[in-house]
Amino acid sequence: MGDWVRLGDAADVPPGKVRCLRLADRKVAVFNENGTLLAYDDYCTHVGGPLTQGTYENGVVTCLWHGAQFRVADGAPLTPPAGGRLRPYPLRIRDGAIEIDLGD
Questions:
Q1: CATH number of 4-101
Q2: Cys-Cys crosslink for 54: which of 2, 30, 64, 70, Cβ 3.0 to 4.6 Å?
Q3: What Rg do the C-alpha atoms of the chain give, in angstroms?
Q4: What is the value of pTM for the model shown?
Q5: Domain spans, the chain
Q6: Could you tell me if 97 and 12 are in contact, meaning their C-beta atoms sit under 8 angstroms apart?
């Protein structure tokens, strides 16, 4: 059984958009990739730039600090200086709310 917690409303993340949703001391980037919601830590794996402040186009997020790019579908790094894969969170929608499994 997971440690599922409510993060926000699914309606707040329209298709093709990303939002930073906060949960206590965590910042979570929630992407709507063609109707599928995906959640990652809102930090670039290079030096921690906020991904939600970068650009998100065609399934790729680009960190505004140094230009590292990641494929949103799986968090894979696409270009340097990315330091590795983005940290994902299992996500589900219940009664219109986004819930993530903290899995700590």
A1: 2.102.10.10
A2: 64
A3: 13
A4: 0.93
A5: 4-101
A6: no
